[in-house]
């Protein structure tokens, strides 16, 4: 079964507008967490749509343009480092997801969320789907929009804090990033709660 077939089976149950939701950036040591909400035109498939983790950067960028041009509706949102520190990364992820859904100019009647837990306060029926970014075209599209948007943000941050080389590692805890943290200390875009075992 392809990811579009998965979504078509859901539409066949009587839903009119199905929205996929996914996040990017729960694990990094720096930067916001991003989320996206996407309602696809189920009758006009976007070739190559897949879980963002299975795609290289060039392919994600191309699909980002296709999704934003062809989707019925989409919205991208984030939760800041300050919010991550204040309410924890899980709740900040849920906050970003709610913001993404709230930003849609067309309201869905079903929301499919990647993972095994749902944010509170969704405006309609919502279902969590484990490995949903590999199963559902709508969630795969959301995974691409959130990943590309966050990567672009981290490249912008790189220009502000060049000594950390954020454009290379996007804030993840690579050996290079940890080395640079130890050399230069913590920046305003680092998540202090994530650094307790790294920076003493």
**Uncertain ranges:** none
Shape assignment: globular
Task: Decide which structural class fits the backbone.
Answer: alpha/beta
Lateral arrangement of strands in the main beta sheet: 3-2-1-4-5
CATH topology: Nucleotidyltransferase, domain 5
The count of β-strands is: 5
Total count of domains = 1
Helix segment tally: 8
For the terminal residues, how far apart are their CA atoms? 49 Å
**What's the helix-strand series?**
HEEHEHHEEHHHH
CATH class category label = Alpha Beta
Kindly report the average pLDDT value: 96
CATH architecture: 2-Layer Sandwich
Using only C-alpha atoms, the radius of gyration works out to: 17 Å
In CATH, what is the homologous superfamily? Answer: Ribonuclease H-like superfamily/Ribonuclease H
The major β-sheet equals: 5 strands, mixed
Helix content: 40-55%
Short recap of the structure:
This protein is an alpha/beta fold and 200 residues long. The chain has helices at 3-11, 57-70, 81-87, 89-102, 132-135, 137-160, 166-169, 175-184; strands at residues 18-24, 33-39, 73-79, 110-114, 125-129.
List keywords for this structure.
single chain; about 200 residues; alpha/beta; Nucleotidyltransferase, domain 5; five-stranded mixed β-sheet; 8 helices; globular
Notes on the protein architecture:
By secondary structure, the protein is α/β, with parallel strands linked by helices. The protein has one domain (3-150): Nucleotidyltransferase, domain 5. It has eight helices and five strands, in the order αββαβααββαααα. It has helices at 3-11, 57-70, 81-87, 89-102, 132-135, 137-160, 166-169, 175-184; strands at 18-24, 33-39, 73-79, 110-114, 125-129. A five-stranded mixed β-sheet has the order 3-2-1-4-5, with helices on both faces. The longest helix is centred in the last third of the chain and has 24 residues, at 137-160. It is globular and about 55 Å long. The relative contact order is 0.22. The model has no long low-confidence stretch (mean pLDDT 96).
């Amino acid at each position: 079964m392809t990811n579009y077939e998965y979504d078509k089976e859901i539409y066949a149950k009587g839903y009119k507008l199905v929205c996929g939701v996914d996040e990017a950036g729960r694990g990094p040591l720096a930067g916001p967490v991003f989320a996206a909400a996407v309602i696809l035109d189920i009758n006009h498939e976007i070739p190559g749509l897949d879980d963002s983790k299975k795609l290289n950067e060039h392919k994600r960028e191309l699909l980002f343009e296709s999704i934003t041009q062809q989707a019925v509706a989409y919205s991208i949102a984030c939760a800041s480092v300050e919010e991550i520190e204040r309410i924890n990364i899980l709740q900040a992820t849920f906050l970003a997801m709610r913001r993404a859904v709230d930003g849609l100019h067309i309201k869905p009647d079903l929301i499919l969320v990647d993972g095994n837990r749902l944010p509170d306060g969704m405006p309609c029926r919502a279902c969590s789907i484990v490995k949903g970014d590999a199963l559902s075209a709508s969630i795969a599209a959301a995974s691409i929009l959130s990943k590309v948007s966050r990567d672009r943000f981290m490249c912008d941050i790189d220009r502000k804090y060049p000594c950390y080389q954020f454009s290379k590692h996007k804030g993840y805890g690579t050996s290079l990033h940890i080395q640079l943290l130890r050399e230069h200390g913590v920046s305003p875009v680092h998540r202090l709660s994530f650094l307790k075992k790294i920076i003493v």
